[in-house]
Prior knowledge:
The protein is of the alpha/beta class. The protein has one domain (14-145, 158-329): Nucleoside phosphorylase domain (Rossmann fold). The protein has helices at 22-31, 98-108, 172-187, 210-219, 228-237, 263-292, 298-303, 323-329, and strands at 8-10, 15-17, 35-39, 50-55, 68-72, 78-83, 112-121, 131-133, 136-140, 193-195, 198-202, 223-225, 241-250. Strands 1, 2, 3, 4, 5, 6, 7, 8, 9, 10, 11, 12 and 13 form a 13-stranded mixed sheet that branches. Strand 11 (198-202), helix 4 and strand 12 form a beta-alpha-beta unit. The longest helix is centred in the last third of the chain and has 30 residues, at 263-292. It starts with 7 loop residues before the first strand and ends in a 5-residue tail after the last helix. It binds ligand LNRAV4D5 and adenine (ADE). The ligand CSC[C@H]1O[C@H](OP(=O)(O)O)[C@H](O)[C@@H]1O binds next to strand 7.
Amino acid sequence: MALRGESLRRSDCMTEFNPNEASFLAQLAQWNIRVGIIGGSGIYKLEGFEIIGSVNPETPWGFPSSPLTIARNAQGVHVAFLARHGLTHSITPSGVPVCANIAALKWIGARAILAFSAVGSLREEIAPRDFVVPSQIIDRTKGVRRATFFGEGKDAGVVAHAMFGDPFDEILRPQVEKIVRETLAKEEPNVKVHGDKTAVCMEGPAFSTRAESLMYRAWGGDLINMSALPEAKLAREAEISYVLIATATDYDAWRPAEGSVHVAEVVACLVANVAASQKVTAALVNPINELVKNDDCEAVKAIRGSMRFSIMTRPEAIPESVKPRIRYILDWYK
Ligand SMILES: CSC[C@H]1O[C@H](OP(=O)(O)O)[C@H](O)[C@@H]1O
Ligand SMILES: Nc1ncnc2[nH]cnc12
């Protein structure tokens, strides 16, 4: 649907908005987008929503993995969608421009992110096709991904240490789990839902060895992916409530009698998982939007301003040059 006053470049299939144009920005303010959705492996678009158009903002950290799709549901709630690995899955887990993705979602207004991820199961009881809304995560990425908005290395200019004891938003997470359970009980009764589990995020792109897979089990890991970090950390720094919705595709490599995981197995499972994820997304948007729709909401108040206490650098020592970047993700920063 084209909107009055917008200057648009029409592609064959989708209206492309200019992120710098005043009329688009005015329209954006009216849409009041609060929920961002990150599609993982297999999820490259939203189903069951009216697609309004797309916008590709250049953030101080570059462009996101894909333009943001702006979509609206039947109740008129607008959301933004991003394909983590790009629209054709051309970006490796280590190559995802995570800072740009989170910054772009903050720019468009997101206060909550529902992040989907295909995962391997490290537990017998989590079968392929099951859904998991984890509460904890173990970081096994290898330092090759930029993991903070606040600069890295000795020339950072500004140093911040975000609280991350509870890596997923503890107000939204139980709500998300409940809605996922209710939705799948109705729509996909054979799919089990698990909560309160521990994810492991590894570097990839190769899958784990059997020894590693067994080690993660011994550490208490229940599922494994390659994408949830630093995504969840950066969302915390940008004061966006982040919840991971994991869909199991395989048993990784720990089961002695089985072959270890390969992509064909993952892809075979993805088709069913993606269909279920689209139903879950449709069910989540209204209630989660309700929980973050304005700055007076409990979930928003709980996270907004939390980074004030995380910045260690003395204010007078923070270079002017880095301040616009901080303001891009934290609107209250002076
Ligand atoms: C396709 S198997 C490995 C790949 O799948 C997961 O991606 P995402 O989290 O974006 O769904 C996993 O993290 C790996 O990147
Ligand atoms: N076994 C596995 N390891 C890491 N990431 C995955 N994504 C899906 N299955 C996975």
